[in-house]
UniProtKB/TrEMBL annotation:
Entry-linked PANTHER family: BETA-GALACTOSIDASE (PTHR46323:SF2)
One GO term describing the cellular component: beta-galactosidase complex
Highest taxon, organism lineage: Bacteria
PROSITE patterns in the cross-refs: GLYCOSYL_HYDROL_F2_1, GLYCOSYL_HYDROL_F2_2
Family of the protein in this entry: Belongs to the glycosyl hydrolase 2 family.
SMART domains: Bgal_small_N
Protein name: Beta-galactosidase
InterPro entries documented for this protein: B-gal_small/dom_5, Bact_Beta-galactosidase, Beta-gal/glucu_dom_sf, Gal_mutarotase_sf_dom, Galactose-bd-like_sf, GH, GH-type_carb-bd, Glyco_hydro_2
Biological processes annotated in GO: lactose catabolic process
Catalytic activity entry: Hydrolysis of terminal non-reducing beta-D-galactose residues in beta-D-galactosides
Length: 957
């Protein structure tokens, strides 16, 4: 005899998409049909396993009075102060045994209960639908004690017909959510695992004769300037577009002159789909997407994608985003010149796509599919190549396409991410091509492009991208005919990415290269009381991938990181270059569709970084691709022989939806003449007195040659050669990288523990010379270093010459001097700013006069690492000193040592000490993006070779 002791939870491990839900359809907000949001506080009970509790909680009259509460939309692991478990971060490893479709018995299960009053004026005619916009990862639903069904597909909408079950007055909605299910095998995206009802829950009235599903087809013929509109609808009705005088029946095409929709000119026409039972607002954008001549063209023109991968993220609410946060993303993207977004790696909240239509962003809408963890077993048993899973894959494809098909911003449907190859993917592509031939299909995982309309790659190195641009990459016949995009490149983890400008140059040079999407938009740091922002491992996960989850262009709080500022500059829609000596500026419109009429131009002239004259520059409204030379006025004469330069800016001529008039979209700078270098005769002679050497304003320790003070300014630690930086994520590189990872080699060599051997201190006629050898323990390599101090009585010059000894097979992290000041706060400099820059990430560094404080010079990377350098510094003033460079130098100052920065795991590990540590660098090694891509290009290497550089010190007090 056998009997069952636990309720059946077989559906959890069933590969099918679920049962009971309505077929997918377009997502829209009706103008007149009623709806009721069921967001808010829900009763909540957490169980350790899927079958721990029976279904009686779904029964009417169940008393959940002693249950906890959670907010819906939300993830339970981010609520309850740890009482409901915690998030888990893995990149591609499944946090459970790979035993498809089974999941562990330990399967956190959240029972959610919502008792709601049906409003007394809720219409009694027609039906009603209950919509879930997102539940991770598997839900079973009951209304008033009756089971509606169960579903998987976390970031997709699921609807149930509930008209028959709704009651006047009190209704009880019960939802059981399992963290793990067969669906989890399809949702192995690189992000936190976050169970819960994390998007809206809504009850929708469906009046008799209301719209069910509809499909807006709005194309644009660039040869005639006409658009053709046809709205197919399950329920017949009329389509009205007042601005175009359109009033046609559904299913009827109509052709009229229109302004097309593009991401640069997102013209939307308001319309209405009216059926007997309902009016649905339409926002129609006319555009035609085709693959033609091996290029992705919209409205007849090839598009250059300047994109980013966007995960949905909020540091406190996880993937439960409100409209304002979504809008903030879009505004930030538009203000930083981005024109495209890949919704990595799942369809976003539908409201985000409305914003993309409205503000103008090209979208790759990606299906909620990733099976990356199967790579660990060479893709054996991969669900996308197993027919049993195909219905689930098709369900996901349909739920994406049907939900989102009416958005003009979407140009590509993406099958998913990192799921290998297989028959299931082909089935998805075939279905999508059939259902929506008016868009293209994207998928990166198949380099033969059997199912796709674009050759897409991730993290391809510059040299390979160039080969692809030149059509020298070979590949299948199909692939050779396709355009190329990088759906992910330039890994924005920590400091970086470096090498962006070099990629952009290639994208602009070769037609076949249609741009790319930076990985990724936002750091997924979780707000944490002690740590600031938590990353993988901070919740005690047994498997995790550390701070690989913090690799965005914006910090978790959406503050732009230097990477975003750099990207903005690199992808500016207008190119401004000049011949400063001859006062000529060349302006090029790099947009694909818009002319320059929305922009105003202004010039200014700086002497030693301070603007002395400015005015407006008249530039013709160049067509896309057009270019013109414009003459600048005569540069002002500067009697003191200062450094003169031009700055030309392109600004918004008027307010737009996304930024106000005068917002700067592009700029260029060019010198009128060369910078005069600081020089003076060495007239002073070192004088020895009582163990001290005096030279001009400076005092030294006669035995060690250490600088003690300059004028009244005490120097806490003398300037010494420094080659170490706290390795960035990109220096360290990903473990699986096959290229040399210099961050690792640096540490092996011992560059973080260099020793200084004092060779001699010589007081000569016109200089104090200190010789030393700087080298790591156990190695034969070293750097012979000579510090030569001279003075004219007022100023003090330090010339450093460095000669490498031995066989240096690695570049240096940095090369310069580090010294300590007991006091410094305010900083002013003339050089690159306002933000940090590194050799291969300094396009956005603008030469000027900048002010800051030591604290504000720091860039708050979630995992602390080298940061905050300012490029091309002519002079800097801080702590009572003025330091001039010959030549220009890199400047960094912080309240902790490089060693402390290197040891810190979180920002909270960094505490200000009583010294401000200043680095004056002659050189820095490039940054690259080896945390998931190429290291710095060779031209950004800091080679160990003989050099000499100088600084001139004086006091400001
Ligand atoms: C690539 C993934 O597609 C993306 O989700 C993310 O994990 C990114 O890498 C790294 O942050 S896969 C890559 C390891 C080849």
């Amino acid at each position: 005899m056998s009997f069952r002791t636990t309720p059946s939870v077989d559906y959890v491990e069933d590969v099918s998409p679920g049962s009971g839900a309505l077929p997918p359809r377009a997502w829209y907000a009706s103008s007149d049909a009623r709806s009721l949001s069921l967001n808010g506080s829900w009763r909540f009970r957490l169980s350790a396993t899927a079958g721990a509790e029976d279904d009686s909680f779904a029964d009417e009259g169940y008393d959940a009075g002693n249950w906890a509460e959670v907010t819906v939309p939300g993830h339970w692991v981010l609520q309850g102060d740890g009482a409901f478990g915690s998030p888990i971060y893995t990149n591609h490893l499944y946090p459970f045994p790979v035993d498809p479709p089974y999941v562990p018995t330990e399967n956190p299960t959240g029972d959610h209960l919502r008792v709601f009053d049906l409003p007394s004026d809720w219409p009694s005619d027609g039906g009603a639908v209950l919509r879930f916009d997102g539940v991770e990862s598997c839900a079973r639903v009951w209304l008033n004690g009756t089971e509606l069904g169960e579903f998987k597909g976390s970031r997709l909408a699921h609807e149930f017909a509930v008209g028959e079950l709704l009651k006047p007055g009190v209704n009880v909605l019960a939802v059981r959510v399992h963290q793990w299910s067969a669906g989890s095998y399809l949702e192995d995206q690189d992000q936190w695992w976050l169970p819960g009802i994390f998007r809206d829950v809504t009850l929708l009235h469906r009046p008799a004769g209301s719209v069910a599903d509809f499909f807006v087809h709005a194309s644009y013929d660039h040869t005639t300037g006409e658009g053709t509109l046809r709205v197919d609808s399950d329920v017949d009705g009329r389509v009205l577009v007042p601005a175009l005088d359109i009033d046609v029946a559904t299913g009827e095409p109509v052709t009229v002159a229109v302004e097309p929709w593009t991401a640069e000119t997102p013209k939307l026409y308001d319309g209405v789909l009216a059926t007997d039972g309902e009016r649905v607002p339409l926002r129609i954008g006319f555009r035609t997407v085709v693959l033609e001549d091996g290029l992705v063209k919209v409205n007849g023109t090839a598009v250059l994608f300047k994109g980013v991968n966007r995960h949905e993220w909020h540091p406190e609410r996880g993937r439960a985003l409100d409209l304002e946060t979504m809008r903030e993303d879009v505004l930030l993207m538009k203000r930083h010149n981005l024109n495209a977004v890949r919704t990595s790696h799942y369809p976003p909240h539908p409201a985000f796509l409305d914003l993309c239509d409205e503000y103008g962003l090209w979208v790759i809408d990606e299906c909620d599919l990733e099976t990356h963890g199967f790579t660990e077993q060479d893709w054996r048993d991969n669900p996308v190549d197993d027919d049993r899973w195909t219905p689930a894959l098709l369900d996901r494809a349909a739920r994406m396409v049907e939900r989102d098909k009416n958005h003009p911003s979407i140009v590509f449907w993406s099958l998913g991410n990192e799921a290998g190859t297989g028959r299931g993917l082909t089935a998805m592509a075939e279905w999508i091509h059939g259902r929506d031939p008016e868009r293209l299909v994207h998928y990166e995982g198949d380099w033969n492009c059997r199912d796709t309309d674009v050759y897409s790659r991730m993290y391809a190195f510059h040299d390979e991208v160039e080969k692809i641009g030149q059509q020298l990459d070979g590949g299948t016949h199909r692939r050779r005919e396709l355009p190329f995009i990088q759906c992910e490149y330039a890994h924005a983890m920590g400091n970086g990415p470096g090498g962006l400008a070099d990629y952009q140059e290639l994208f602009e040079k070769y037609d076949r290269l249609q741009g790319g999407f930076i990985w990724e938009w936002i750091d997924h740091g979780v707000k944490h009381a002690e740590l600031g922002y938590a990353y993988g491992g901070d919740f005690g996960e047994e498997l995790h991938d550390g701070n690989f989850v913090c690799d965005g262009l914006v910090f978790p709080d959406r503050t732009p990181s230097p990477g975003l500022i750099e990207y903005k500059k690199v992808i500016e829609p207008v190119h401004i270059e000049g011949d400063g000596a001859n006062g000529i500026v060349r302006i090029t419109n790099k947009q694909d569709f818009a002319d320059l009429s929305a922009l105003a131009f202004e010039w200014s002239c700086q002497v030693d970084g301070e603007t002395v004259e400015s005015g407006s520059l008249s530039v013709p409204a160049l067509a896309p691709g057009g270019s013109a030379e414009v003459k600048l006025p005569e540069p002002p004469v500067d009697g003191r022989g200062g450094e003169r330069q031009w700055t030309v800016r392109a600004l918004l001529a008027g307010d737009t939806l996304w930024a106000a008039k005068d917002h700067v979209v592009a700029w260029g700078q060019f010198a009128v003449g060369a910078r005069p270098l600081p020089s003076f005769p060495a007239t002073d002679r070192p004088a020895l007195d009582d163990g001290r050497i005096t030279l001009g304003p400076a005092r030294f320790d006669a035995r060690t040659g250490a600088l003690l003070s300059i004028g009244g300014v005490e120097v806490g630690a003398t300037p010494r050669l420094d080659v170490w930086r706290a390795p960035t994520d990109n220096d360290d590189g990903a473990e699986w990288q096959t290229d040399t990872r210099y961050g690792v080699l640096w540490r092996t060599l011992g560059l973080h523990r260099m020793r200084h051997r004092l060779v001699s201190v010589e007081a000569g006629d016109d200089a104090l010379t200190v010789r030393s050898r700087v080298a790591p323990a156990a190695r034969e390599v070293g750097l012979d270093t000579v510090y030569r101090w001279t003075s004219d009585g007022e100023r003090l010059r330090l010339s450093v010459s460095v000669t490498p000894e031995g066989d240096w097979t690695v570049p240096l992290p940095r090369l310069g001097v580090r010294f300590g000041l007991p006091e410094a706060d305010r900083v002013e400099w003339f050089g690159g700013g306002p933000g940090e820059a590194y050799p291969d990430s300094k396009a956005a560094s603008m030469i000027g006069r900048w002010q800051s404080t030591v604290d504000r010079l720091q860039t708050p990377y979630v995992r602390p690492q080298e940061n905050g350098a300012r490029a091309d510094v002519r002079w800097v003033e801080l702590g009572g000193l003025r330091i001039e460079g010959d030549p220009e130098f890199w400047f960094t100052a912080r309240r902790w040592t490089t060693e402390q920065l290197d040891a810190a795991r979180h920002r909270s590990d960094l505490a200000a000490g009583d010294t401000v540590w200043v680095n004056l660098d002659h050189g820095l090694h490039g940054i690259g993006s080896q945390s998931c891509g190429p290291g710095p290009l060779p031209q950004y290497f800091l080679k160990a070779e003989p050099v000499e550089f100088s600084f001139v010190f004086s006091t400001t007090r």
